[in-house]
Amino acid sequence: MQTSYRQQIFAGIDVSKHHLDLATTQAGETGSKAPHRVTNTPDGYQAIIKVLDGPCIERIVVEATGGYEQRLVRALQAAGLPIAVVNPKRVRDYAKALGHLAKTDAIDAAVIARYALDIKPEPAPRLDERQRLRASLTTRRRQLIGLRTAESCRLEHATDDIVRQSIEQVLDMLHRQIRAIDEHINRLIEEDEQTRLIDRTLRTVAGVGPVTSRTLISELPELGHINRQSISALVGVAPFNCDSGMFRGRRMIRGGRAAVRSALYMATLTATRSNH
Predict the structure, then answer these.
(1) How far apart are CA 141 and CA 179, in angstroms?
(2) Is the residue at 171 inside a domain?
(3) Which residue, of 100, 119, 138, is where some domain finishes?
(4) Are residues 83 and 155 in the same domain?
(5) Which of 83, 120, 114 is nearest to 97 (CA)?
(6) Is 23 helix (H, G, I), strand (E, B) or coil?
(7) Which of 24, 71, 83, 240 could anchor a disulfide with 60, C-beta 3.0 to 4.6 Å?
């Protein structure tokens, strides 16, 4: 028997370091059920799965919280539940549009549930273990590059030998760590035939080297699955209109995935300086 529209359930989960607040709502309801709080642990994930597991669940939404949501998302995806990860700013803007100025964990969970009902964001793609590990290693590499840059700047201004020696030792360690991560990412790419083909194809573009290719493969899994307009907006390189009445403003880019956009900027800069 098909689920009727009024039976469809939409859930919002407010994520914090130690707790998860779950609220649900249905089409046709003006509010949501009282939030249910569990711990942000595997036991808490199973409790949420037990509550939400069923044919009536249409969408579950959580906000990106800097990593506290990742284990929850993987657990719910493994259970076959349709979970979407959204930008917290969009949910907050939605709450303001509804006139909700107060902010607590319970209120946030209820607002996220309403957001799930009204906006229906697309569920997050489920990454296999190899894809997830590539993305984690790419993020870690970017962090190490930042540390190396900071230490290099400190070395430039250090005058005492003992301080310079300390910085040089840290830099040596960072160089080795970055090389090890590069080797690991390369192995993951070479082990997968489809990913290896994408890597070879990307590198045929002027300016695109191994770093840019690895960044696109690891942090833009949608590449090749959506059209060029959507992928441009997702990355943050699509120029958006800024017009009103007779006014015609400048088209500007904004938002998107900063790491991917930075990698593309450096690739473009390299391409403009090449002989191609």
Answers:
(1) 9
(2) yes
(3) 119
(4) no
(5) 114
(6) strand
(7) 83
Say how far apart CA 161 and CA 32 lie, in whole Å.
64
Q: Supply the range of the domain harboring residue 25.
A: 9-119
Verify that 114 and 132 share a domain, yes or no. Answer: no
Residues 223 and 149 in one domain: no
Report how far residue 235's alpha carbon sits from residue 274's, in angstroms, rounded to the nearest whole number: 24
Query: Is there a single domain that holds both residue 132 and residue 156?
Result: yes
Which of 119, 143, 173 terminates a domain? The answer is 119
SS3 38: strand
210-219 helix and 129-157 helix, angle to the nearest 10 degrees: 130
Q: Compute CA 263 distance to the chain's CA centroid, rounded to the nearest angstrom.
A: 16
d(CA 128, CA 70): 14
Cα–Cα dist 50/15, whole Å: 18
Task: Please give the pLDDT value at position 32.
Answer: 64
The residue whose two tokens read 């509804």 is 98
| Residue 3 clears pLDDT 70, i.e. is over it | no
Query: Distance (Å, rounded) from C-alpha 28 to C-alpha 16?
Result: 29
The model's pTM is 0.78
Please give the tally of structural domains in the chain. Answer: 3
| 3-state SS class at 65 | coil
Q: Establish if 2 belongs to a structural domain.
A: no
What phi, psi does 108 have (nearest 5°)? Answer: -60, -45
Q: Give tens-digit pLDDT for 89-141.
A: 999 999 999 898 889 999 999 999 999 999 999 998 888 888 889 999 999 99
